[in-house]
Structures are given as structure tokens and as C-alpha cells.
Specification:
The protein is of the alpha+beta class. Helix content is 16%, strand content 34%. The chain has helices spanning 2-25, 29-32, 44-47, 59-62, 146-155, 308-314, 366-373, 408-418; strands at residues 79-82, 85-98, 101-109, 115-123, 129-135, 160-165, 169-170, 176-177, 181-183, 186-189, 199-202, 208-211, 213-220, 226-228, 231-232, 241-244, 259-265, 277-287, 301-305, 321-330, 343-346, 349-353, 356-357, 378-383, 389-395, 422-426, 434-436, 439-440, 454-460. Strand 2 and strand 3 (101-109) form a beta hairpin. The N and C termini lie far apart (97 Å).
Length: 461
């Protein structure tokens, strides 16, 4: 009996030990991970409402900011001062064309100097579009009306949403740009210059840059001898080496006093590469002094040299491989080069830099300075501080009683009022033209569109 009693006591002890252990180890799940229904549960939506919470309030609904789908361009209202002239905003019209595109029209009232402003603001994050340079007749020396370019592109199946005139050009040489022009990664025209004109450029994601550029191009032969390339598609002067491709035309248009070399790029799709000419090139033909005006077959390169450059080319042999490099970098940001900037046109002077109105450089004197200070029709391209918005703007001029035009410092003020943080002065006067959906929005001081060297366009991919 005692034996069984001892077993009973042991069993109770085991049970008690087990129960005590369970009570000791077990924890209330509400203590470990409070869930709805627990007395200590705190709804996270009460502490920090986020999208999906019943009490979440979308800030875009209460205070739309840049980036919100319902954000609109701010109105220019009340008084506005440009230079020493005070304006009253007489009327404005803002239209959201579609997602990512806003058009603004404003009339500024002043008895002596009224103004009319047109501006297109584009959101760079808008999918399905690209900002591209267009070149007149796809030629370095060709000129074309923006409307003709739009028709030409659309016949090729490309829808042009917006088009604006581009940079300054030389009328004496048919329409050759004054400085850098890049079309979808292909360098159309630069000239090596100690004081290059500033450009506005765009990368593959439509992000904008405004800066002067440093141009670097050269040829290296199989013996590692190098010779600098002074220009792409430009004129050939004494001791110059110039590179030509199809945008020069069907022929080089050179005199007979030089040597010309026809090369076949060995890199597939070289014309569409970011750093478009940094390729191995095989010499197909060498044409010595006495000929000139060499043919430029599509997809091939011609190197044209005079004087010492002619001597360098004459020492090469047909069948040799050479390396051809064309590159440019932004002066203030050397990490941004030809592999980044896919499209670019040059302007005459920067009018707005990092939110500050830029003064006209002291190096610009005489008639050029007078032109920048005079009241004229003006075109500008710029972008916001966060690079989310690009602005194409035309201020009308030469329209008595309606719009007198502005100086370039005043154009910088206009761009700042519109929301730009950086802006470039493009060609103006009779060249100023802003087209949206095939419609010319501004008054044309020539009475009709002028044929120009190049421009910028927003094109549907």
C-alpha cells in the first residue's frame, strides 16, 4: 500500500511540475504580437496613416505639389517686374494637354512694353516620350521649317507632340550650327573652340543639362601616332583634320588641296552608340592631293586633311585599321560626356543658372551684346531644380501694342517665374517658334515660319 501511495505522490509531483512549467513558459500572444481584438492592440493607421488606411488623406488632394497627378502649372498673377518694367498680369490660360504636358499662355500689361508669353512644361518622368534634336533636312548645312520637319517625321511614322526652334546658325554656309549639335547620340557638328557656346542636352531618360562643352576628337593609327580632329562636318582650313559622315551630305564639298581617307567602321551600329565615334575603322580608300570632294557612302566615315593633316593621312595605307574617337564633356561636370548626353543644341548664352539670373559674359561685346540687350522675340529652353520639368518658352516680339519682346536677362526672369532653375537663350527673332500638336502657338514676326538649322522636339516613342 505504501508503495502505491508513493507512486501517487510522485505522479502528483510530476503533474504539478508539468503544470507549473507550462504556466511558467506560456505567454499571452497579445503580449508577444498584439493583433486586432487584443486589449493592448494599437491600430498603426491611427499612429501613421499610409495609403490603404481608412483614415489616410492623400496630400495630393489637399495640397497638390510637383509630382502629383493633379498638379497644375502655377498661375502668374498680380504684378510682375522684368528688369525695370512693372507689369500687370492681364490674362492667363493654362491647359493640361495630357498627362505630363501643360501649356501656358499669358498676357502682361504695360502701356509702353506689353508682352505675350507661351510656355510648354513637360514632365521628364512621363512615359512614352523622348526629347530629341532635329536637324534641318537631316543635314549639317540644311534648313527647314518646324512644320516641314513635323510632316517629314510623321510621314515616317513618328508622332511629334511638341517642336521648338533651336540654336543659332550661320546663314553664310547654308545653315551650319554655331556649336555642338547631337542627334540621338550622333555628333552632327562641333568645332574645337577655346570658348565654346553653351548647350542644352538631354540623356536617354530625358534628364536635362545646360553647360558649355569641351570637345576632344582624334585619330590614332596602327603605330600609335595621333592627330587631332578639329571638327565634325565642318569646313576644312589650313592644317585641319575634319571628320565627315552622312549629315555632311553625299560628298565632302572640299577643294583639291588635301588628302581624304574613306573608312569603314568595324563596330556595328556605330551611329547609334552613346559615344558614337570611338571605334576601330578600316581604311578602304585614300584619295591624295588633287582630287577633293570625296563621296560619303551611308554608314561610312571620311577623314579630310589639309597641310600637316594631309601629310598624316597620306602616310596611312589602305587596309590599315585606325581608331577614331569623338568625345565631349561638360565643363562644370566632366563626368557627363557623349555617352550620357544623347541630344543637344547650342545657345548663345546661359540666362539662368541655379536660380540666379546670369549676366551677359563680358567677352560678348559690340553688336552681339547689343542684340542680347535689345527687345526681341525670344526662345528659351530650361528646367526645374529637381530636373522633373522641362520648359520650352517663346516670348513674342515686334508686335506693336501687343508684345514688344524682351532682353535675354529679362527672358531669364520669365523662365524663373515659370519655375525654371536653369535656362538657355536659343535663337530668337524670326526663328522663334513653338508648335504643339502641329499648331503654331506664337505670333511669327516674319509672318510665317522661318527655315532654321535645328530644333528640339518631344516625340512619342
Amino acid at each position: 500500500m505504501k508503495k502505491y501511495f508513493n507512486i501517487f505522490l510522485c505522479s502528483i509531483a510530476v503533474i504539478c511540475f508539468t503544470v507549473e512549467s507550462c504556466n511558467k513558459d506560456s505567454k499571452d500572444p497579445c503580449e508577444m504580437d498584439p493583433q486586432p481584438g487584443c486589449p493592448n492592440y494599437v491600430d498603426p493607421c491611427e499612429k501613421n496613416p499610409i495609403p490603404g488606411c481608412p483614415n489616410y488623406v492623400d496630400p495630393c488632394e489637399t495640397d497638390p505639389q510637383p509630382g502629383c497627378p493633379n498638379y497644375e502649372m502655377p498661375l502668374i498673377a498680380g504684378k510682375l517686374t522684368l528688369g525695370t518694367t512693372e507689369y500687370t498680369v492681364d490674362s492667363t490660360h493654362i491647359e493640361k494637354l495630357e498627362e505630363g504636358f501643360w501649356y501656358l499662355y499669358a498676357q502682361l500689361k504695360n502701356e509702353d512694353k506689353p508682352l505675350v508669353i507661351h510656355s510648354l512644361r513637360y514632365s521628364t518622368g512621363t512615359a512614352g516620350y523622348s526629347i530629341e534634336t532635329w536637324s534641318g533636312q537631316d543635314s549639317v548645312a540644311g534648313k527647314e521649317r518646324p512644320s516641314a520637319m513635323v510632316n517629314r517625321y510623321e510621314q515616317a511614322g513618328r508622332q511629334v507632340k511638341v517642336a521648338v526652334n533651336g540654336g543659332f546658325y550661320g546663314t553664310a554656309v547654308g545653315g551650319m550650327p554655331m556649336s555642338l549639335e547631337v542627334v540621338n547620340g550622333l555628333v552632327i557638328f562641333p568645332v574645337s573652340d577655346a570658348n565654346p557656346q553653351p548647350v542644352i542636352g538631354f540623356d536617354a531618360h530625358n534628364l536635362p543639362y545646360i553647360d558649355s562643352v569641351s570637345f576632344n576628337a582624334k585619330v590614332k593609327d596602327k603605330d600609335n601616332r595621333e592627330f587631332p580632329i578639329i571638327s565634325v562636318n565642318g569646313e576644312r582650313w589650313a592644317d585641319n583634320l575634319v571628320l565627315h559622315h552622312s549629315f555632311r551630305g553625299k560628298r565632302t564639298k572640299t577643294n583639291p588641296w588635301g588628302t581624304e581617307v574613306l573608312c569603314v567602321p568595324m563596330t556595328a551600329q556605330w551611329e547609334k552608340m552613346g559615344n558614337h565615334i570611338n571605334v576601330r575603322c578600316r581604311i578602304e580608300k585614300i584619295q591624295g592631293v588633287g582630287s577633293g570632294n570625296m563621296a560619303i557612302p551611308k554608314g561610312k566615315i571620311v577623314l579630310s586633311g589639309n597641310g600637316t593633316a594631309s601629310d598624316y593621312l597620306a602616310a596611312l595605307q589602305e587596309g590599315d585599321d585606325i581608331n577614331v574617337t569623338v568625345d565631349y564633356t561638360l565643363l562644370y561636370d566632366p563626368a557627363i560626356n557623349s555617352t550620357v548626353v544623347r541630344n543637344a543644341v547650342s545657345g548663345f548664352n546661359i540666362i539662368l543658372r541655379n536660380g540666379h539670373i546670369a549676366s551677359i559674359p563680358a567677352a560678348i561685346t559690340g553688336a552681339d551684346r547689343d542684340m542680347l540687350l535689345a527687345n526681341n522675340p525670344r526662345t528659351s529652353a530650361g528646367y526645374s531644380a529637381d530636373r522633373k520639368y522641362v520648359y520650352f518658352t517663346v516670348v513674342e516680339g515686334r508686335r506693336t501694342g501687343v508684345s514688344a519682346g524682351v532682353s535675354t536677362p529679362e527672358l531669364g526672369q520669365v523662365m524663373k517665374y515659370l519655375g525654371a532653375d536653369n535656362a538657355l537663350n536659343l535663337d530668337g527673332g524670326g526663328s522663334s517658334c513653338l508648335m504643339i500638336n502641329k499648331e503654331t502657338k506664337n505670333y511669327l514676326s516674319d509672318g510665317s515660319q522661318r527655315a532654321i538649322a535645328n530644333g528640339l522636339a518631344i516625340i512619342k516613342k
